[in-house]
Write a structure and sequence with these properties.
The complex is a heterotetramer, with two copies of chain A (141 residues) and two copies of chain B (444 residues). Chain A has 141 residues and is mainly beta. Chain A is 9% helix and 34% strand. In chain A, strand 6 and strand 7 form a beta hairpin. Strand 2 of chain A pairs antiparallel with strand 1 of chain D.
């Protein structure tokens, strides 16, 4: 048996549809092995999503995420009277202040580490953030 | 009453606190590191906040992150559990400064008992029997003089140590000269405090400890003792209540002495006074742990109380509420600490728990922070479950623990269950001939 | 003392018996059907014998197969659990004929209480309060006469029934005429006995039952009562001890009356006398169950005893051994029966349990015969676990049960946990305003 | 045996439909392995093998197994003084008595249901047997 590219794709689809975890095909002594993952390995259903690691590139959305290095409260401006540090569409350079995360009455300025464009602001002003929460998406043009 | 309590811990003790909160109608906030996003304490709390990466120094020991988590969730109070920040007076102080009630003793009390040399002096001044020992040894020659005056064999101890850490048994002057400098560097590295002192060595001691509760109204209760003699390298692995080594008279004398002493210090919250018992049956003060202990459930079972619920009540400013004014232990309780470790080499064994079937039935309590499918992380304490039994007599409790261990199945990781089985089957254990050297002497 | 006991049952009760045997140092033999080859009772017993195919008539009800299993394994005694053969006098007799001790009452006692009309007469003759009722109705006209004389509304009951089976509430003569023949055929089909009689209807009764233990030395102990009013179609789903509906005086009067009555019959082993309590608080005898009941753990928790261990001791010919001569209930216990069924439609939900995480911690007991990965077979009782809690007061026990239900996660099958949560949250339950019609009236 | 592409696809479909977890095909010693999802994938490790259903055909051993319809004690002869009902190599016809299983003092004669040759006697005389235990393997020539 020889597999071609289309057959391989179909195999992968079948694997998914049949809820298998493993297909083994060997050529000469012709060994074929298909395995299904045992059902019960899964955990209680009150799941929450794991926090994203800082600055993760995701295949489906372009760009880099800036995540919170602290637990605290997210502020887009230095004070209620000031303008926001950045807006969507702004070009930023490394070192540019993006926001403040307040923890224990300390105002921690979060700076950009890369050059790019603010594509999305993911947290509302004044809202609490956890460690690792995504704050901004930055597109590197 | 508190509306919301943040639990600054993980694993079984985080769940233990969560349970008493939920039973009291208090909402809970879990804090967790990234790897603990799917941990049971994270899942079961009303709210969960990720406070940092896996390294405990950047998460569970990260004071600003924990305080910020309490602030953004609007928690009223923080329960520190045991370990991590439970005995950190700065943390307790920071809580107070930020308007958060620390569920535990005052920062002053934590500090008072935290230094082992000072706590010995304090205990002595409070009328507690203290093991013969020395002042701090300032240098090598001073150390030799002090140890010789005390008389070999001695135990060289770090003033900043505790819980069995920073201890060396020294048989001779030569041995002392060989280890003194290294012990000092070790103490400085481990505890940030290089001070060393000596105590008389008790060759085959029992570890006996008394549970106390104090409230802001000046009430102090001594809730009996626990025998925690079965240890491996000073880490307790089996605990029981009551201790068969205490006569009713000694138990009651000790309770009076301790009550008087703790009343004098105005102690608040749960605490444990640890003693060593020598071969003649006399008890000498070892240390005071100003927090809830791992082995508290054996006291709860024989006394019919909820120590964590009392800690919460006390922190709310309420008086201690016991089912009867003079509680006496009812029956006998034993706890086995089930650790994710090789039962022979004691090497840690983190990994995914593929099967998790704990014992059940009458007189069996399980306190655990894991579940089938959970991956035990390598970063923290290897305790995966506490198996605790309660029976009318010690013999019944032993029989119950044997059958409970026999029906407990944890797959995917190695655990010390086989070691527990061997200890529980050992005639010396059955007969109560135990000391902290049990594992060395019997190698069950 | 027995060396080996065969457990003629499956599921949680088989494990319950196994545990008390193992704690007593008695070896166990499990019997199982083919589908139960991997069941927990099969796995945890010292020996396991396959006695037949999945159909319980050919396995768990197959007397020759069970006796043969006892013979080939050399068992001394057989514990029948509840259900299956527990109340079959022929089985108890066959055990005796084969030299096997039946762990339960005598065949005569099982027979004595098995027929519901005769047991009413017996109870009356023993001085127990019995609900007003009639003799057997011989035909339709006789039935109408008897029911009219008693006064509608009435309950039409099958003499061979029990446990809530074979009962019809009849409001009028017309209704009686419409159902009488069908009820008779149904009784013949279900119990092999078409005899019917009437009892007065209590509109909103509480179900209150007393636990007794008797031994071969003539001792009878009445171990308090249970309130099992939360039922669905006469099947209990939540039970508690003690009942808040009993005054101390009524409790003590009932205990004396029952003790005297059971002493007169020379009752041996565990048994339960069930009563209905009407709106005025008076109790009338319903039936006597000569066996251990599903809900026995709530009594164990408040009394601090092991009823199954006592059953074994009694069968060995030993006297009952209680921790104190006059036991009083300590605290309050609640049991929720967790069934593999849809919480709304009550349709059975067999299947593979993919996740199984039961509550733990202080005051929580779990009795279960399942585990994660086990496939609940469709052939048997849907009970997958009993969640039982014990707290200092009823309010504490309710709070503890709420948090325990909240942290219990059973995946892969539907269970009635959502129903239990709704009941436990219901103000009427919280206030103790309960009757056997609770679910009909409040539909929580 | 050579598998082609369509056969492989069919195998995967079969695996799914039959709720199997594993199919293993080997060429030269012609080993076919079909595994059903174990009832207790997550289960305690004190496992025992499931009892075989009565009269199962297995790929690796030819013939039919006669299993015990009762729990009891297996006897190869009517009494200790008699000869065994059958020996290996005997040809048997339906209705032939193969052994006795004693339960509750009753001697239950077990009869053959098919024609064939006694290939193996799987239980020793006088030993206890469970329901479903294999007693004889009979080869149908």
């Amino acid at each position: 048996m020889k597999l071609n590219w289309d057959q391989l794709r179909e195999l992968i689809q079948l694997l998914d549809e049949a809820n298998l975890t493993e297909i083994e095909v060997k050529q000469d002594d012709q060994r074929i092995r298909l395995r299904r993952e045992p059902a019960a390995a899964q955990a209680p259903s009150v799941a929450t999503d794991p926090a994203e690691p800082a600055a993760t590139a995701e295949p489906q959305t372009k760009g880099i995420f800036v995540t919170s290095p602290f637990v605290g409260t997210f502020y887009r401006a230095a004070s209620p009277d000031d303008d926001a540090f950045v807006e969507v569409g702004d070009r930023i350079a490394p070192g540019a202040v993006l926001c403040i995360v307040e923890a224990m009455k300390l105002m921690n300025e979060i700076e950009a580490e890369i050059e790019g464009e603010i594509a999305e602001i993911l947290v509302e002003n004044g809202k609490p953030v956890e460690y690792g929460d995504r704050l901004f998406r930055i597109e590197i043009a | 009453m508190f509306e919301k309590v943040l639990i600054a811990n993980r694993g079984e003790i985080a769940l233990r606190v969560l349970r008493s909160c939920h039973e009291r109608g208090v909402r809970t906030v879990a804090v967790h590191s990234e790897i603990d996003t799917e941990a049971l304490h994270t899942r079961l709390a009303d709210e969960a906040i990720c406070i940092g990466p896996d390294d405990p120094r950047r998460s569970y020991l990260n004071i600003p992150a924990i305080i910020a988590a309490a602030e953004i969730t609007g928690a009223d109070a923080i329960h520190p559990g045991y370990g991590f920040l439970a005995e950190n007076p700065e943390f307790a102080e920071t809580c107070a400064q930020c308007g958060l009630k620390f569920i535990g003793p005052t920062p002053g009390q934590i500090r008072q008992w935290g230094d082992k040399v000072k706590s010995r002096a304090l205990a002595r001044s409070l009328g507690l029997p203290v093991l013969e020992g020395t002042e701090l040894a300032t240098n090598m020659d001073d150390a030799v003089d002090k140890a010789t005056a005390l008389g070999f064999p001695v135990v060289l101890k770090a003033s900043g140590g505790g819980g069995g850490r920073g201890m060396h048994v020294i048989q001779t002057e030569e041995q002392l000269r060989a280890v003194f400098q290294a012990a000092r560097s070790e103490a400085r590295a481990a505890f940030g405090n290089e001070e060393l002192y000596f105590e008389k060595l008790i060759e085959r001691p029992r570890h006996v400890e008394f549970q106390i509760l104090g409230d802001e109204h000046g009430n102090i209760h001594v809730l009996g003792e626990r025998d925690c003699s079965i240890q491996r390298r000073h880490q307790k692995i089996i605990e029981e209540a009551p201790s068969i080594a205490l006569s009713d008279e000694l138990r009651s004398d000790m309770a009076s002495t301790i009550r008087r002493a703790m009343k004098e210090t105005g102690y608040v919250s749960a605490g444990t006074l640890e003693f060593l018992m020598d071969e003649t049956g006399s008890l000498t003060f070892l240390e005071m742990n100003p927090r809830i202990q791992v082995e508290h459930p054996v006291t709860e079972l024989v006394m019919g109380i909820d120590l964590v619920a009392e800690q919460i009540r006390i922190a709310e400013g309420l008086p201690i509420e016991l089912p009867a004014p003079n509680l006496a232990p009812r029956g006998h309780a034993i706890e086995c600490r089930i650790n994710a470790e090789d039962p022979d080499t004691f090497a840690p064994s983190p990994g995914t728990i593929t099967e998790f079937h704990m014992a059940g039935g009458t007189g069996v309590r399980v306190d655990s922070g894991v579940y089938g499918g959970w991956r035990v992380p390598p970063h923290y304490d290897p305790l995966v479950a506490k198996l605790i039994v309660h029976g009318p007599t010690r013999a019944h409790a032993i029989a119950k623990m044997r059958r409970s261990l026999a029906e407990t199945i944890i797959g995917g990781i190695r655990t010390n269950i086989p070691l527990h089985r061997r200890i529980l089957e050992h005639p010396a254990f059955e007969e109560g001939r135990i000391s902290t050297r049990f594992l060395d002497e019997f190698s069950p």
